[in-house]
Amino acid sequence: MELGALKAEIEAAIAAAGSPEALEAVRVAELGRKGRITELVKSLGTLPPEERPRAGQAYNELKREIEAAIAARRAALEAAALEARLARERTDVTLPARERPEGRIHPVSQVTEEIVAIFADMGFTVAEGPDVEDDWHNFEALNIPPEHPARQMQDTFYLESRDAQGQPLLLRTHTSPVQIRTMRAGKPPFRIIAPGRVYRRDYDMTHTPMFHQVEGLVIDRRTHMGHLKGCLTEFVRAFFERDDVPVRFRPSYFPFTEPSAEMDVGCRRSKDELVVGEGSDWLEILGCGMVHPRVLEAVGLDPDVWQGFAFGMGIDRVAMLKYGIPDLRTFFEGDLRWLEHYGFRPLEVPTTFGGLSR
Ligand code: PHE
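Above: the input record for the complex with phenylalanine. Below: its predicted structure, written as tokens.
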């Protein structure tokens, strides 16, 4: 067979090989021990001596060219196989982890996250204290005298254990003891919020024996009532997600603040709807005031140097207002259908820039 024709034929077979196995078959047929090219090289000995050098050169050249063509084809097949495999195994890592994750975030958790996000933007950090408190942190240091009505049995859950002073331990009735713990544990200035559980003996549509509050405390050298008003007004507008929420501060009384106030937000009440942020009605949402000098003294701060404000807000209550949940008791019944309805999507973390409650 003429060498040029043989070469063309083998090259065509190489090009036609669609898999590494097919290509290997071509290689064995041409270059294997009994392959056509191998046989050609072996046949050199049968040629007349004067033809051998030229023929040998031509055969070797053919052999090299075919080897190179096979190697190139093999590389191309391997690259194509890799491409196909990558395409087959492609994963879009930007897809949601699951079409619809199971479970829901409870409105209390959601609203706590929202509140933390807003105050974090204002430079507050989160502080914590224990649910089981002693009399001094929950009452005494907060300037609540022994005969104060808040201490009476119908409000406070007392435990059988007693503290070192012989006073019964209790379940904290508010988050205000975290003010005391924070000021005792660190050095001023302070700027903290303290969300958590509180306990009072009460049970109806808007009261449960356990509920949630968030405490706020700012202590610095020149903090005044204007800061309190600005901070809480800003908070309420961010929380209810509208810039025009009317607010009003009404004089009030708390033993641990002086002066004390309650903050109302403007709302509209109709027969079966309550809309915060418009209308001519008012709704109380939190208690606040300038930290009482006696409280500062109780934690060893000089009231002539340090001053500030505090506030306490019901988390469940603002959750009910914001998300239109009518009965507080349902928060703690563990009804999955309720949670399915009022709960939040697990992977949507509230932020002030990405949206609090989408
Ligand atoms: N601790 C008060 C309550 O439980 C709320 C409050 C906190 C008021 C801080 C003023 C300052 O009602």
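Notes for the reader.
Residues 3-88 form one domain.
The two ends are 79 Å apart (CA to CA).
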